[in-house]
Structure formats: structure tokens, C-alpha cells
Amino acid sequence: MRHLLSAADLDRAQAVEVLDAAARMAATQSREIKKLPTLRGRTVVNLFFEDSTRTRISFETAAKRLSADVINFSAKGSSLSKGESLKDTAQTLQAMGADAVVVRHPASGAPHRLAHAGWVGTSVVNAGDGTHQHPTQALLDAFTIRRHLKADTAHPEAIGNDLDGVTVVIVGDVLHSRVARSNVQLLHTLGARVVIVAPPTLVPVGAHTWPCEIAYDLDQALVDHQPDAVMMLRVQRERMGSGGASAGPGFFPSPLEYTRSYGLDARRLRMLSERAIVLHPGPMNRGLEISAEAADSPRAVILEQVANGVAVRMAVLYLLLAKERETLA
Ligand code: CP
């Protein structure tokens, strides 16, 4: 693996390889000394042109836990305000010795351009580009689902390879969601059945070609599909114009109606099967797409997703930069 730009870059064997490496990384994180020498002497640049809490900090933590040096770039306070381009910014940071560039950018396709236009010679990891892709989020979501639903209770260490037989319902603002796009692809690759549920105005044109089913009524979908995992999406108000959704006639339904029709609340929690888990990529709009009761319920694995993000990003950096020269201790 040279770059990780899209969930579509991974076939089933590669996706399982990342998840298995992440499981080994997670095991090292319960030790007293969490740090591994694996990437000593390597430099990872976090190039963030959009705000982030979880992804930026977990990539930084992951790189440091592997003993890499980390350079953090954020657009605020940089020479971007003087008109410097993505290409010049990336090349400047590469000149400082980067071995991998982790990039988040508001423009869909920016990491792909960085990797394939010859702008940098390093590995490029997509940490979220526009509404396009967020592959490490999908990997950490798959990792979390696999841990909960595919573990053999008699042999907890023997986790099933993939997500065959698992049904995941993804709910909400699919239109603006790179998390949804990445998850639909990766979960399908891993064998899960995926159903997206959204108001018609928040379903992208072309979604009917994705490897998933589409539904518009959440209550009906919960009854019909009996999901093993429900993934709530953040309503991305910052990507909606003042009038509403960018590809539809406004933010329809209204926030109140959205919550009533598509929010996960105590009543809908009770509709789920005993083993079903609730995911959210964060940050959450509590009271809009998810109630506090649902977010804080024992079914919610939202903070586990955050913790698993470190292990998954360690695995990705390891596979990109160190696999050929190191073995995990
Ligand atoms: N899930 C996610 O990408 O969160 P951040 O925007 O905080 O990185």
C-alpha cells in the first residue's frame, strides 16, 4: 500500500489486513509502555486545511506511539492567508523531511491530487476531503463493529475476519457525508449489508448506484432490517447554504421535523435488537440527530470509536511506512 486515499483502494484482504494490524496495535496500547520503536526516524506531517479534533489528534497520537516525529500544520496561522497553494504548502513540508502526509481538505479530490500529480513523493493518507472520502474513519468504524459483533464469545481473541452477515443502517445527512461514502464502500467490501436512511433531500444523486439499499422511513427501516449496528451521521450545517442543503430545496425537513423523523432517541433505541450497537463519527449534534439518552446509552460505542481510531491509524502508518522493515514487538 503506497497511499490510502479512498475506502475503494482496499479489497477485502487488504481491509482485513489493516483491521488485523489494528487489533495488534490495540493490544500494545493496553501495556504500561505504549510506545513502539517502529517508525523511529520517520516524519509524519499532519496537513489540516479543515478543523478536526478526533482525526488530527489521533493521527498525531498514532505517529508518536510509533516513535515517529510529527509536524502539525493547520491552515489557521499559516501562509495560506498570503495565498500559498496546497502544492507549495505540501512541497514546503516535504522539504522538511516528511515521509508521509496526512491531509484533510475541504475540496473533494485534494489528497488524490497531492498523491498522483507528482506534487509530493511521500505516502499520502486522506484524513477527509470535502464530501468525498474519509477512509480511516470507515476503517475504525469497521474495526469497532467487528470487535463487538464478530468476536467469538467462547474465544474472545478469535475475531471473525470480516463483516459477513452483519447489517448496518447508516442514518442522516448522507449528502454531505464522506463518512457515509467511505463506510458504504468498506462495509460492503467486508461483506456487510448496508442500508442508508435519509430524507430524500439528503440523499446524493447517484446513491442508487452504491452497494447499499436506500430507505426514507427510519422507523420502518429499523423494523424491516433489524440492524446489528446503527450509524448516526452528523447533520453538516456548515456545508449547507443559508437556505439549506446544497443539492436540494433547503434544509428540508426542518430541524424539529428532522429530529422527529430521523433522530435516534430512547423510543428508537428500544426498537433495536439486544446486541445492536450505536455509532456516531463525531462531533455530535446532541438533540438533533441523536438524543443525549441515545448518545450516552450502554449501546453507544462512540468513545470506543475514538479510542480505536488511534489503533487503526497506527496500523495504517505502520503498513504504509514500516511493514517491510519492522515487526511488532
Ligand atoms: N470523525 C471525525 O472526522 O471527527 P473530526 O472532524 O473531529 O476529526
From TrEMBL:
InterPro entries: Asp/Orn_carbamoyltranf_P-bd, Asp/Orn_carbamoylTrfase, Asp/Orn_carbamoylTrfase_sf, Asp_carbamoyltransf, Asp_carbamoyltransf_Asp/Orn-bd. Keywords: Pyrimidine biosynthesis, Transferase. Pfam families: OTCace, OTCace_N. Residues 164-320 form the Aspartate/ornithine carbamoyltransferase Asp/Orn-binding domain. GO terms for cellular component: cytosol. Heterododecamer (2C3:3R2) of six catalytic PyrB chains organized as two trimers (C3), and six regulatory PyrI chains organized as three dimers (R2). This is Aspartate carbamoyltransferase.
